[in-house]
Amino acid sequence: MAKPDGRLTHDLDPNDRPPRDACGVFGAWSPGEDVAKLAYYGLHALQHRGQESAGIAVSDGRRIVVHKEMGLVAQVFDEPSLTALRGDIAVAHCRYSTTGAPVWANAQPTFRSTPTVSIALGHNGNLTNTRELAAMLPQESGFAGLQATSDTDVLTELIAGGAGTDGGVEEASARILPLVRGAYSLVYMDENTLYAARDPQGFRPLVIGQLAAGWVVASETAALDIVGASFVREVEPGELISLDERGVRSRRFAPAAPKVCLFEYVYLARPDTTIGGRGLHATRVDIGRRLAAEHPASADLVIPVPESGTPAAIGYAEASGIPYGQGLVKNSYVGRTFIQPSQTIRQLGIRLKLNPLRDVIAGRRIVVVDDSIVRGNTQRAIVAMLREAGALEVHVRIASPPIKWPCFYGIDFATRDELIAGRSSVEEIRAAIGADSLGYVSLDELVAATEQPRGSVCRACFDGHYPVPVPESERGKGVLEPVTSLGQHGNASTGRAPAPSGGGHYDRYHSLLASASQRPSANATSRLPRRPRHRRRRRERPRRRTRHTGRRRGRRFALPFRRPAPAAAG
Ligand code: SF4
Fold first, then answer.
1. Is the CB of 268 under 6 A from ligand 1?
2. Which residue's CA is the closest to the ligand 1 atom numbered 8?
3. Same structural domain for residues 288 and 253?
4. Do the domain assignments include residue 394?
5. Residue 74 and residue 39 in one domain
């Protein structure tokens, strides 16, 4: 149960939640443009990929400024904060955590400043050799120590440290990225150049777009559309792109071995996004058609679980000849609130989000189409709701195969024990959710709907065949927790175990970070607007927000929220 701390939550039903993506990334190189606002709208388009925190870094060619906070994009940024972010290059990020806790220190873009260069980096995906990379840190020149508990922080430290040698960030990237395992679609920058890189498997999408006077890079093509950029191409798996006044440079740091995430096609990416040349709305409608062929039903009406089940329901209705209609109305905004529901309200669970249209449902045999089943609690509640609304029969159809295995490449499903298909047969799941029938689309038909070669998609959560090995020690969000708790020793890479403590591990670590960043400052006057009353209460805890700034050959700063822009930096 979430604590009533006023933090954003989507977990109105704590027993079930949808799969969560591991971030959206956006970058812009466009001299003369208001790149912070481009990044802001780009992030809005990618908000579905990460809703825990958001951040934008901007470089004016001399200095990088990062503004990041916990919360949705619209909660983190306002006109004054965007106006203060001036420059020609931007990197932006919205996060859902897969390695490292959902706390400010782990929000992105991550930032490092060394005597020769500063970088800000945004990452979508999850690394599978984070500990191995962390162990390399002391050997890299420029090593300054981890400042967070995320795999992204390790990567940022490695590239910034390596950039101290000949060739700067580009050469350091070409040297370090081949050593990195797992999923990473990266957008990052130094003071003058925007970089984009994608792991050799290309688990997560990453695309390049062109503006009238510049370039953008984004997790999804929908973000290009929304900022008025034309799609150029995808960043290839194993490719590093550099964008600056010298033009666009491409170099391959590893051979491509594509294993694009199949779940991006099912649920994660927006329906108006294109991956591998295939529009996702069309793909999902096609999945619905194939689902109807594999699992027909005698019914009067096909309804979606809005909104992720809608395209597949359209396809199911088309192929089956059963009329399509809306039977459930979604309250899109109820989960995006700072108001914690009372226990009475929380017990309503899915009813807070979905309400049945009784006059549509009553007296009919219903096919209800959803994108996936994780724990099964949501589907059980929906079936019960439809029966209470008068449905004669409820046939559940699912637009993905049973999810039996956890993902280690950037999607937070659940553990194998928590996944209902990891321990139950289809018939057992049908009985558990109370449906009259249950049908999943097969893996073969799902892959066929993507129009990708079978060997070039990752399907590990469905069949357990992980394309990149994941050592036991690299599993779970907390792989760096024992390492970074050693912040108290001043060296996070020694691997020594944390000292025992009765308090929460995260809280202890963050207190250490807070004390390091809340140095006395002569410039304490506020230039940023007061935070809403309901968020002020959190001030009682130590804070370290919101900006990092860095300057080439200058000092690095982490300034508390509401302090003025660092005019005296350096
Ligand atoms: S395991 Fe599943 S969710 Fe994870 S990358 Fe592979 S297909 Fe996608």
1. no
2. 261
3. no
4. yes
5. yes
The domain boundary residue, chosen from 384, 415, 450: 450
Checking 341-347 for CB contacts under 8 A at 24+ apart, the result is 341/12, 346/1, 346/12, 346/13, 346/14
6 within domain boundaries: no
What is the phi-psi region of residue 67: left when phi exceeds 0, alpha when psi lies from -120 to 50, beta otherwise? beta
Position 343 confidence tier, pLDDT thresholds 50, 70, 90? low
pLDDT range class, residue 457, cuts 50, 70, 90: very high
551 & 427 share domain: no
Quick: pLDDT tens for 552-562: 433 333 333 33
What tens digit of pLDDT does each residue of 107-133 get?
Answer: 999 999 988 899 999 999 999 999 899
Report if residue 278 sits inside a domain.
no
Does residue 153 sit in the same domain as residue 35? yes
Domain region containing 111: 24-259+475-559
What pLDDT shows up at residue 477? 62
Question: Mean pLDDT over all residues of the chain?
Answer: 81
The answer on 121 and 252 residing in a single domain is yes
pLDDT of residue 505: 26
* Minimum-distance ligand 1 atom for the alpha carbon of 183: 5
CATH of the domain at 170: 3.60.20.10
Which atom of ligand 1 lies closest to the CA of 413?
3
Residues 436 and 550 placed together within one structural domain of the fold: no
Q: Which residues lie below 8 Å from residue 282, measured CB to CB, with a gap of 6+?
A: none
Is 156 in the same domain as 293?
Answer: no
- Output 382-387 pairs: Cβ under 8 A, ≥24 positions apart: 382/305, 382/328, 382/350, 382/354, 383/433, 383/434, 383/435, 384/434, 385/328, 385/350, 385/351, 385/354, 385/356, 386/327, 386/356, 386/361, 387/434
Asked whether the predicted pLDDT for residue 569 surpasses 50, the reply is no
**Half-sphere exposure of residue 106: CA atoms within 13 angstroms, side-chain side:** 23
Catalytic residues: 23
Task: Report the domain count for the chain.
Answer: 2
Give the tens place of pLDDT for each residue, 344-353.
665 566 777 8
pLDDT above 50 for 542 = no
459 lines ligand 1 (CB under 6 A): yes
* Residues 193, 49 share a domain: yes
pLDDT (mean) for 510-530: 29
Assess whether pLDDT exceeds 70 at residue 195.
yes
Alpha-helix residue ranges (DSSP H) falling in 137-244: 151-162, 168-176, 221-226
Pairing of strands 393-398, 328-330: unpaired
Which atom, in ligand 1's list, is nearest to the CA of 406?
A: 1
Last residue of a domain, one of 416, 450, 484: 450
Confidence of residue 135 (pLDDT cuts 50, 70, 90): confident
Evaluate whether residue 335 is within a structural domain: yes
CATH code of 353's domain = 3.40.50.2020
Residue pair 386/327 in contact by the 8 Å Cβ criterion = yes
Ligand 1 neighbourhood includes 204 CB (under 6 angstroms)? no
Q: 3-class DSSP state for residue 232? A: strand
Best probe residue, ligand 1, of 203, 262, 372, 404 (max atoms within 8 Å of C-beta): 262
- Closest residue by Cα to atom 4, ligand 1, is 407
